[in-house]
Amino acid sequence: MQVTGVSHIPIGVRDMEKSLVFWRDFMGLQITGDTGEAFPERRSVFLRWNPEKSQDSVFMSLSAARGADARDSSTGLGQLGVNHIAFWVDDLEAYAKRAKAMGIEARMEPMTYGRRYADHEHGENFRSAMFLDPDGVAVQLEEWRE
C-alpha cells in the first residue's frame, strides 16, 4: 500500500470569475468541468494542465460558496487554507511578464537559488517566483535551467 500521486488541489475562493482569470488565463489551466448551478451550497470548477490524461492527472478544484456560506469564510470545506502551492514551469520569465501585464501581484520576483533548497543542491540552475491569486493564496512557480 502506498501513495501513488496527487489527485487534486482544492481551493476555496470568494469570487469564481476573478479566480478563473488567475488560474485559467494567467496559469494557463483548462476548464474540464463546472458544477454550475447543480449544488445549492457551492459552485466548483475543475481545471487541468494536461486535460487529455484526465483519469490520473492532477487537477485544481476551485469552490465558491453560495448564500450564507459565501458571507462566512469560516464555513465549508477546507477552511484552514493553504500556505502556498508550487508548480514547475518551463519559462518563469514569461510568467513574470504575464503577471505584470495582467496586474497580478508578485510576492517574490523571479530569483535564482544559489543555495541548498528542499532536498536538492540548486546552484545557479534553479529559479523561483511567487504570485498571489485573488484570495491571497501564494502560488510559487519554479523552473530548472540546464
Account of the 3D structure:
The chain is α+β, with helices and mostly antiparallel strands and 146 residues long. The chain folds into 2 domains: 8-71, 2,3-Dihydroxybiphenyl 1,2-Dioxygenase, domain 1, CATH 3.10.180; 84-144, 2,3-Dihydroxybiphenyl 1,2-Dioxygenase, domain 1 (Roll). Helix content is 18%, strand content 38%. It is built from 3 helices and 10 strands. The chain has helices at residues 16-26, 68-71, 92-102; strands at 8-13, 30-34, 42-48, 59-65, 84-88, 106-112, 116-117, 120-121, 126-132, 138-144. The strands form 3 sheets. A 4-stranded mixed beta sheet has the order 1-4-3-2. It has a 4-stranded mixed beta sheet with strand order 5-10-9-6, covered by helices on one side. Strands 7-8 form a two-stranded antiparallel sheet. Strand 2 and strand 3 (42-48) form a beta hairpin.
Which structural traits does this protein have?
10 strands; 2,3-Dihydroxybiphenyl 1,2-Dioxygenase, domain 1; alpha+beta; four-stranded mixed sheet; 2 domains
Q: From N to C, what is the helix and strand string?
A: EHEEEHEHEEEEE
Text of the CATH class of the largest domain: Alpha Beta
Number of separate domains: 2
The strand order across the widest sheet is 1-4-3-2
Classify the beta-strand content into a percent band: 35-45%
CATH architecture of the largest domain: Roll
CATH topology of the largest domain: 2,3-Dihydroxybiphenyl 1,2-Dioxygenase, domain 1
Overall pLDDT confidence: 80
**Radius of gyration (Å):** 17 Å
For CATH, the homologous superfamily of the largest domain is named as 2,3-Dihydroxybiphenyl 1,2-Dioxygenase, domain 1
Distance between the termini: 36 Å
